[in-house]
Amino acid sequence: MNNVISSSEERMKKTAANLKEGFASFRTGRASAALFDRIRVEYYGDKQPLNQVANISIPEARLVVIQPWDKAMIGEIEKAIRSSELSLNPSNDGKVIRIAIPPLTEDRRKDLVKQAKNQAEQSRVAIRNIRRDGNDELKKLLKDGLLTEDEESHDSAELQKLTDGYITKVNQTLEEKEKEIMEV
Predict the structure, then answer these.
(1) Which has the closest alpha carbon to 31: 57, 63, 70, 76?
(2) Which residues contact 162 (CB under 8 A, 6 or more apart)?
Protein backbone atom coordinates (compact mmCIF):
# COMPACT_ATOMS: atom_id res chain seq x y z
CA MET A 1 0.00 0.00 0.00
CA ASN A 2 1.48 3.32 -0.96
CA ASN A 3 1.88 6.47 1.10
CA VAL A 4 -1.11 8.29 -0.41
CA ILE A 5 -3.51 5.49 0.56
CA SER A 6 -2.16 5.13 4.10
CA SER A 7 -2.18 8.89 4.82
CA SER A 8 -5.71 9.16 3.39
CA GLU A 9 -6.86 6.25 5.55
CA GLU A 10 -5.33 7.85 8.64
CA ARG A 11 -7.19 11.12 7.94
CA MET A 12 -10.47 9.25 7.32
CA LYS A 13 -10.02 7.33 10.58
CA LYS A 14 -9.56 10.63 12.46
CA THR A 15 -12.69 12.09 10.84
CA ALA A 16 -14.79 9.08 11.92
CA ALA A 17 -13.30 9.24 15.45
CA ASN A 18 -14.06 12.98 15.69
CA LEU A 19 -17.69 12.31 14.81
CA LYS A 20 -17.98 9.70 17.56
CA GLU A 21 -16.35 12.10 20.01
CA GLY A 22 -18.72 14.89 18.98
CA PHE A 23 -21.72 12.60 19.45
CA ALA A 24 -20.54 11.63 22.95
CA SER A 25 -21.14 15.17 24.18
CA PHE A 26 -24.78 15.19 22.96
CA ARG A 27 -27.14 15.19 25.90
CA THR A 28 -29.59 12.36 25.44
CA GLY A 29 -32.06 11.22 28.08
CA ARG A 30 -29.32 9.05 29.59
CA ALA A 31 -26.56 9.89 32.03
CA SER A 32 -23.06 9.73 30.58
CA ALA A 33 -19.69 10.85 31.88
CA ALA A 34 -18.83 12.02 28.33
CA LEU A 35 -21.42 14.79 28.73
CA PHE A 36 -18.98 16.60 30.98
CA ASP A 37 -15.89 16.29 28.74
CA ARG A 38 -16.06 19.91 27.61
CA ILE A 39 -16.66 21.41 31.05
CA ARG A 40 -13.70 23.29 32.51
CA VAL A 41 -13.46 24.24 36.18
CA GLU A 42 -11.49 27.09 37.73
CA TYR A 43 -8.84 25.36 39.85
CA TYR A 44 -6.19 27.50 41.58
CA GLY A 45 -6.32 30.16 38.86
CA ASP A 46 -6.27 27.68 35.96
CA LYS A 47 -9.07 26.08 33.93
CA GLN A 48 -9.01 22.29 34.31
CA PRO A 49 -11.22 19.63 32.69
CA LEU A 50 -13.87 18.48 35.18
CA ASN A 51 -12.71 14.85 35.02
CA GLN A 52 -9.27 15.95 36.30
CA VAL A 53 -10.60 17.54 39.49
CA ALA A 54 -13.39 15.08 40.33
CA ASN A 55 -14.60 11.53 39.96
CA ILE A 56 -17.66 11.21 37.71
CA SER A 57 -19.86 8.14 38.20
CA ILE A 58 -23.19 6.95 36.80
CA PRO A 59 -24.97 4.93 39.52
CA GLU A 60 -28.30 4.92 37.61
CA ALA A 61 -29.42 5.49 34.01
CA ARG A 62 -30.56 9.05 34.74
CA LEU A 63 -28.24 10.08 37.58
CA VAL A 64 -24.70 11.45 37.60
CA VAL A 65 -22.67 11.71 40.80
CA ILE A 66 -19.61 13.96 40.82
CA GLN A 67 -17.23 13.65 43.74
CA PRO A 68 -14.55 16.37 43.85
CA TRP A 69 -11.13 15.29 45.08
CA ASP A 70 -10.87 18.62 46.89
CA LYS A 71 -14.11 19.37 48.81
CA ALA A 72 -13.44 23.12 48.47
CA MET A 73 -14.01 22.75 44.70
CA ILE A 74 -17.68 21.77 45.03
CA GLY A 75 -18.97 25.33 44.46
CA GLU A 76 -16.74 25.92 41.42
CA ILE A 77 -17.79 22.61 39.86
CA GLU A 78 -21.46 23.37 40.45
CA LYS A 79 -21.04 26.84 38.93
CA ALA A 80 -19.26 25.42 35.84
CA ILE A 81 -22.04 22.87 35.26
CA ARG A 82 -24.80 25.48 35.65
CA SER A 83 -23.10 27.84 33.18
CA SER A 84 -22.52 25.10 30.58
CA GLU A 85 -24.77 24.59 27.56
CA LEU A 86 -26.05 21.32 29.08
CA SER A 87 -28.97 22.99 30.91
CA LEU A 88 -28.56 20.78 33.96
CA ASN A 89 -29.41 21.59 37.55
CA PRO A 90 -26.82 20.15 39.97
CA SER A 91 -27.42 19.84 43.71
CA ASN A 92 -24.82 19.12 46.38
CA ASP A 93 -24.77 17.86 49.93
CA GLY A 94 -21.33 19.29 50.76
CA LYS A 95 -19.55 16.08 49.72
CA VAL A 96 -20.87 15.15 46.27
CA ILE A 97 -22.82 16.77 43.46
CA ARG A 98 -25.85 14.90 42.15
CA ILE A 99 -27.36 15.65 38.76
CA ALA A 100 -30.64 14.11 37.66
CA ILE A 101 -30.80 13.89 33.87
CA PRO A 102 -34.36 14.78 32.86
CA PRO A 103 -35.93 12.96 29.92
CA LEU A 104 -35.85 14.95 26.69
CA THR A 105 -38.96 16.42 25.12
CA GLU A 106 -40.00 15.16 21.69
CA ASP A 107 -39.04 18.49 20.08
CA ARG A 108 -35.62 18.47 21.73
CA ARG A 109 -35.01 14.89 20.54
CA LYS A 110 -35.91 15.84 16.97
CA ASP A 111 -33.61 18.86 17.20
CA LEU A 112 -30.74 16.66 18.45
CA VAL A 113 -31.30 14.17 15.62
CA LYS A 114 -31.14 17.08 13.16
CA GLN A 115 -27.84 18.22 14.71
CA ALA A 116 -26.48 14.66 14.58
CA LYS A 117 -27.42 14.33 10.90
CA ASN A 118 -25.71 17.64 10.17
CA GLN A 119 -22.50 16.53 11.92
CA ALA A 120 -22.59 13.19 10.09
CA GLU A 121 -22.99 14.97 6.74
CA GLN A 122 -20.01 17.19 7.55
CA SER A 123 -17.98 14.04 8.27
CA ARG A 124 -19.07 12.43 4.98
CA VAL A 125 -18.06 15.59 3.08
CA ALA A 126 -14.69 15.61 4.88
CA ILE A 127 -14.11 11.96 3.92
CA ARG A 128 -14.97 12.68 0.27
CA ASN A 129 -12.58 15.65 0.33
CA ILE A 130 -9.84 13.37 1.64
CA ARG A 131 -10.55 10.99 -1.26
CA ARG A 132 -10.35 13.90 -3.71
CA ASP A 133 -7.02 15.03 -2.22
CA GLY A 134 -5.70 11.47 -2.48
CA ASN A 135 -6.79 11.16 -6.11
CA ASP A 136 -5.16 14.51 -6.92
CA GLU A 137 -1.94 13.28 -5.33
CA LEU A 138 -2.10 10.03 -7.32
CA LYS A 139 -2.60 11.98 -10.57
CA LYS A 140 0.41 14.14 -9.72
CA LEU A 141 2.53 11.04 -9.06
CA LEU A 142 1.36 9.60 -12.41
CA LYS A 143 2.22 12.84 -14.19
CA ASP A 144 5.66 12.93 -12.56
CA GLY A 145 6.27 9.36 -13.74
CA LEU A 146 6.44 7.93 -10.21
CA LEU A 147 3.38 5.70 -10.82
CA THR A 148 2.25 3.66 -13.80
CA GLU A 149 -1.31 4.05 -15.09
CA ASP A 150 -2.16 0.59 -13.73
CA GLU A 151 -0.84 1.49 -10.27
CA GLU A 152 -2.71 4.80 -10.31
CA SER A 153 -5.92 3.04 -11.35
CA HIS A 154 -5.49 0.36 -8.67
CA ASP A 155 -4.71 2.92 -5.94
CA SER A 156 -7.63 5.08 -7.01
CA ALA A 157 -9.96 2.06 -6.69
CA GLU A 158 -8.41 1.28 -3.27
CA LEU A 159 -9.07 4.87 -2.19
CA GLN A 160 -12.70 4.54 -3.29
CA LYS A 161 -13.07 1.34 -1.22
CA LEU A 162 -11.68 3.14 1.82
CA THR A 163 -14.05 6.05 1.25
CA ASP A 164 -17.06 3.73 0.97
CA GLY A 165 -16.03 1.91 4.14
CA TYR A 166 -15.63 5.06 6.21
CA ILE A 167 -18.86 6.58 4.93
CA THR A 168 -20.60 3.35 5.99
CA LYS A 169 -19.00 3.73 9.46
CA VAL A 170 -20.27 7.31 9.68
CA ASN A 171 -23.78 6.16 8.71
CA GLN A 172 -23.70 3.38 11.34
CA THR A 173 -22.51 5.81 14.02
CA LEU A 174 -25.34 8.19 13.09
CA GLU A 175 -27.91 5.38 13.15
CA GLU A 176 -26.81 4.28 16.64
CA LYS A 177 -26.89 7.85 17.94
CA GLU A 178 -30.32 8.48 16.42
CA LYS A 179 -31.66 5.36 18.11
CA GLU A 180 -30.17 6.44 21.45
CA ILE A 181 -31.61 9.96 21.14
CA MET A 182 -35.10 8.82 20.16
CA GLU A 183 -35.45 6.16 22.86
CA VAL A 184 -37.74 7.34 25.64
Answers:
(1) 63
(2) 5, 8, 9, 12, 131
